[in-house]
Amino acid sequence: MKYLITCLLVCISTFLPVLAQDKLDTLVMAGPFAAVSNPLIRMIETKALADITDNLKFEIWKNPDQLRAMVLNGKTDFIATPTNVAANLYNRGADIRLLNVSVWGILWMVSREQGLQTLADFKGKEIAMPFRGDMPDLIFTELAEQQGLDPKKDFTLRYVANPLDAMQLLILRRVDHALLAEPAVSMAIFKTKTFPAKIIAPDLYRSVDLQKEWGRLLKREAKIPQAGMAVINKKLNPHVIKRFNEEYEKAMQWCLDHPDEAGKMVAKRVPMLLPEAVTESIKVGQLKPVSAKVARNELEYFFKVLLKRTPALVGGKLPDDGFYSQ
Length: 326
Hints:
Blueprint: H1 2-20, E1 27-31, H2 38-46, E2 56-60, H3 64-72, E3 78-82, H4 83-91, E4 97-98, E5 100-105, E6 107-111, E7 126-130, H5 135-146, H6 151-154, E8 156-160, H7 163-171, E9 177-181, H8 184-191, H9 197-200, E10 205-209, H10 210-218, E11 227-231, H11 238-257, H12 259-269, H13 275-284, E12 286-291, H14 296-309
Parallel strand pairs: 1-2, 1-3, 7-8
Antiparallel strand pairs: 3-11, 4-11, 5-12, 6-9, 6-10
Helix pairs in contact: 2-11, 2-12, 5-10, 7-8, 8-13, 11-12, 12-13
């Protein structure tokens, strides 16, 4: 009898965290029109956190200002974010912790010219550049200078609000070159192959892979810790955070294993995206969730590059241990 009672107590203690965790009224996830958000949409579609909440929501942010507002308004629980923005907000006192890095490569040069293989091949050309003074712009600047180029003199940079605006300039033939992030790269290429864009816009080509340039010029792996998921609700039970991590990783793997189905799924939720373009962006992107603690060395190297150029982008210093979630 004592043995049975002991076994019963062990079973109860094992499941107590789950039983004691009342379901949340609502759990809000947020992200941009990008691959980092694909798993969030999959989680909505499959009711992945039904054990945590009956009301799982996904909201879109369209620019860094909206992202920062969501972090500070107290109404969002998990948010997909560029890693440097998360570091910036943490260093400025926001209650945000980075959970993982899941996007390691989505930046490309797109051009109407074939055969351009390095940034040096774009010398003297006009380039549409999203997010002036932010991460893509600074990565471009770093890589250009590593090749002995002066971005202010050797290129004509046409700054726009976001990658989708740069994509539109390409499609409308207002520029011939742009730095884009997926899925805008694939969107631009697919749109110029379809009617009526095909009539007015010559073919576009996926040109320089900025991740490969990063690896080649800085003597590192050809990957950049660009974006991941962060938690911004300090009241969340650790069990909820654990379950989110599990389901996000599972959903990302599903997207990688089923890119065609994932493309249709995302386009259904975000009508402005073509399913074929989403599928292609999944196939070509470097997408792998790595815990923030494991990715810390890569993150700190990346942050130091940004600190050297614009300290404010990461809040003026490297984030301390508290930034890297368990």
